[in-house]
Amino acid sequence: KQSADPHPQTLAQLIMAELIEQGTLDDHIKQLRQEHRRRRDAVASALERHRAAGQLQWALPDGGLYFWCRLPPRVNSSAVLTEALTESVAFVAGQHFYVDHAGDRELRLCFSGIRPDRADEVVRRLLRSIATVRRETTAQPPLMSIVK
Fold first, then answer.
1. Of 29, 58, 78, 122, which has the fewest CB atoms closer than 10 Å, so is most exposed?
2. Is this prediction's pTM over 0.90?
């Protein structure tokens, strides 16, 4: 085992062993599911409340910990990430999930780390970042070719 994984998460393993031995693992999983659902719903509600649909498309996830989102045409998720980081908001740019680096208009937003009382602020900051990149993108003059 040690040659394949020289630094296992010993503390996490000890905690899991304790939960199993005490018979509390199932209750803990129920609590985690409830809390994750609460956080997912808070972010989804914030996206709706702040009319994010004009800047971002998403689907309500049935499972997992992430919203998979799509940006408008010509808005690059890496550019949005750079701007969002200045707003203390992070996500994973979509191109990291494609072998051909497609997905440049997609992003994965983790809701599990967003407390429900912070969802509105996180969404406002994300939308502000998208709007900034969108303005910068549309402000650039179109490429022109010169034909003689």
1. 29
2. no
